[in-house]
Design brief:
With about 270 residues, the chain is an alpha/beta fold. Helix content is about 25%, strand content about 15%. Strand 7, helix 7 and strand 8 form a beta-alpha-beta unit.
Length: about 270
C-alpha cells in the first residue's frame, strides 16, 4: 500500500472505527446522477459514517463564472464540519467514495485548505471495504458536537486572472487533470467548449490509482511527476476543480507540495469565451 499519512487501508479503518477522535465521511457522488450518492448512503455505508454531498455541501451555487463546482462558503462548511464532530487540528477524518477518489479528494483538499491536516482517504473506497467483508449499515449516523474554525491557506488557490498572468512564465507549470481526449478537445461531454488552456500539460487524474481504486505506490507517484519536480510553481485544474484534487494528492505523495488549485478550472475558463 502507499506509505503516506493521507491513505488508510480498510483493515486500518475497521480496527480504528470506534476511536472517538475519528470521523468517517462518505463522499460518494455521480455527476450523471446527482442524487445517486445520497441514495447509496441511505442504502448502505460504513458504520458511523456521515454523508457530505458534492453539490450541496462541498460546492456553492453556480453562477455565470466560477465554474461548475465553485468552492463552498467556508463559514457554512465549517458549521457542517462542527455538526458532525470535527474539531480543528485534533479530529482525524477519513473520507471515502467509490470513484477512485474523485470526490473524496475534494474533501481532502478542502479540509487542508481550511487548515486541518488530519485527513486521510480510504484506499480502494467503499468497494474495497465491502470486498473485505466488513460490516455496512443503513442507519443515519447521530450528530456529534465539534468546533471547527477554518484557517484558510489562501495561497493554495488561484483565479483566472492569476492563471492568465502566470501560465506562460518559464518556471510555472499548468497541469490539466482531465482524460487525454478532453484535454485534446476530441470530446467534451460536459462543458460547452472543448480543448484546454493554452500551455497546459496533461496528467489525467485517473493515473493516480489503479483500476480498482487503489492508490499507486509512492515510487510510482514520484516517477509520474519527475519532469515537474523542479518547477517553482505548479497550478492544477480539471473540468470544475474536483478531480484536480486527486492530482494534488498525488503531488503531495510524490513529495512535491505547495501545488495550487485553479478551482474554477476549464468550466470557468471557457465561460469567458462564450
Amino acid at each position: 500500500m502507499t506509505d503516506t499519512k493521507f491513505i488508510v487501508s480498510p483493515e486500518w479503518l475497521v480496527a480504528n472505527q470506534d476511536n472517538p477522535d475519528l470521523v468517517i465521511i462518505d463522499c460518494r457522488f455521480s455527476l450523471a446522477d446527482p442524487e445517486l450518492g445520497q441514495n447509496q448512503y441511505r442504502e448502505s455505508h460504513i458504520p458511523g459514517a456521515f454523508y457530505l454531498d458534492l453539490n450541496r455541501d462541498l460546492s456553492s451555487q453556480v453562477g455565470k463564472h466560477g465554474g461548475r463546482h465553485p468552492l463552498p462558503n467556508m463559514a457554512e462548511l465549517a458549521e457542517k464540519f462542527s455538526a458532525i464532530g470535527i474539531n480543528s487540528r485534533s479530529t482525524l477524518v477519513v473520507a471515502y467514495d467509490d470513484s477512485r477518489l474523485a470526490f473524496a479528494a475534494r474533501l481532502w483538499w478542502l479540509l487542508r485548505y481550511a487548515g486541518h491536516d488530519k485527513i486521510a482517504l480510504l484506499d480502494g473506497g467503499f468497494s474495497a471495504w465491502k470486498s473485505a467483508g466488513y460490516p455496512v449499515v443503513n442507519t443515519v449516523s447521530d450528530r456529534r458536537e465539534g468546533k471547527f474554525v477554518p484557517e484558510l491557506q489562501s495561497d493554495w488557490l488561484v483565479d483566472i486572472a492569476t492563471v492568465k498572468s502566470r501560465k506562460d512564465l518559464p518556471d510555472t507549470v499548468l497541469v490539466d487533470s482531465r482524460e487525454k481526449e478532453r484535454y485534446l478537445g476530441l470530446k467534451e461531454p460536459i462543458d460547452p467548449i472543448a480543448g484546454h488552456i493554452p500551455g497546459a500539460v496533461n496528467y489525467p487524474w485517473q493515473e493516480v490509482t489503479d483500476a480498482g481504486g487503489k492508490v499507486r505506490s509512492n515510487w510510482e507517484q514520484k516517477q509520474r511527476w519527475q519532469e515537474l519536480e523542479n518547477a517553482k510553481e505548479i497550478v492544477v485544474y480539471c473540468g470544475s476543480g474536483v478531480t484536480a484534487c486527486v492530482n494534488l494528492l498525488s503531488l503531495e505523495i510524490a513529495g512535491i507540495p505547495n501545488a495550487k488549485l485553479y478551482a474554477g478550472s476549464w468550466s470557468d475558463w471557457c465561460s469567458y469565451q462564450l
